[in-house]
Amino acid sequence: MTPPPPAPSLPEITNQEFKAVQRFIYAAAGISLSDAKKPLVTSRLAKRLRACGLADYDAYLKRVQADSVERQWAIDLLTTNETYFFREQSHFDFMCSDVLPRHQRDHTFRAWSAASSSGEEAYSIAMVLDDALGQAPWEVVGTDISTQVLERCSQARYPMERAQLIPGYYLRSYCLKGTGPEDGFLRVNKSLRQHLRFLHANLNSDLPALGEFDLIFLRNVMIYFEAATRHCLIQRLVRHLRPGGWLFIGHAEFLHGFDDQLRLVSPSIYQKH
Fold first, then answer.
1. Is the dihedral of CA 257, 258, 263, 268 positive or negative?
2. For the sheet containing 157-159, what is the strand order?
3. Rounded to 5, what percent of the chain is helix, strand, coil?
């Protein structure tokens, strides 16, 4: 049998085309792509060139500007969505030791996973809240710029290997192990899922009506932004934080110029004045 011919190779992205991609994703999502990301951009966008039957990246960028659906495809491909359950365990420990014991329980405790990716962070927060607050009302809102990962959030279905860092008690209490065709997967149980909402949101644009939160997770997001973009983003998020509320950022991130709004409580943990 004659083997099928190899798929035609796509052209390398030119410097001019790459700079156009950099401008596009900065305008769309505030993300600053370094020149070192050029191979990554090529590999991620090449599949869409092939799917659209386009000859080069310039033609693809014109399609992106003219087609809102393709624009969202490009944003989804160019944004990083790395996450896992109970990432940076110290934050969840601080929730249990310092945040939740101070909750007055005169209102619904609300937490926001501001860059929820495929949902593991939001569900980790939910497990902690359900366990710690008992019958007291609580809600978790997850937002992300990628519509593709938001679909996975709502499904709450994950490969079992992603459960390695879920504490055993939480795994038994809140997760169902798949059998048969679902073998090798887990699903977060329905009683927990009913406390979560996932919404599409661009953190560097007008946000949907979210209300106020007691706790906001914005972890490992600002490393992709320039200083001015980070400053505007934090201003936007702090407006959604209740007085006395908490902001958790990534351990490799830092804030400057917000001393009148936020006080540093612990590395990567801030409280609103």
1. negative
2. 157-159, 185-188, 175-177
3. 45, 20, 35
Is the pLDDT higher at 96 or at 39? 96
Question: pTM of the predicted model, to two decimals?
Answer: 0.84
> Does 41 score more than 70 pLDDT?
yes
Q: Which residues form the catalytic set?
A: 44, 144
Half-sphere exposure of residue 213, counting CA atoms within 13 Å on the CB side? 24
Question: CA 3 to CA 80: how far, in whole Å?
Answer: 36
Q: What's the whole-number mean pLDDT along residues 61-88? A: 85
Specify the pLDDT at position 160: 92
Identify the CA nearest to 7 among candidates 40, 56, 46, 63. 46
Please state, in angstroms and rounded to a whole number, the distance separating the CA atoms of residues 222 and 31: 9
pLDDT one-digit tens code per residue, 111-154: 999 999 999 999 999 999 999 998 999 999 999 988 888 888 98
By DSSP bridging, strand 138-144 and strand 109-113 are: parallel
What does the pLDDT read at residue 81?
65
Domains of the chain: 15-76 (1.10.155.10), 89-157+189-272 (3.40.50.150)
Quickly count helices (H) and strands (E) in the chain.
10, 10
Residue burial 229-251, b: 16+ Cβ < 10 Å; e: rest? bbbebbeebbebbeeebbbbbbe
Residues sharing a CB contact under 8 Å with residue 14, sequence separation 6 or more, in sequence order = 57, 58
Per the listing, tokens 């909402």 go with 197
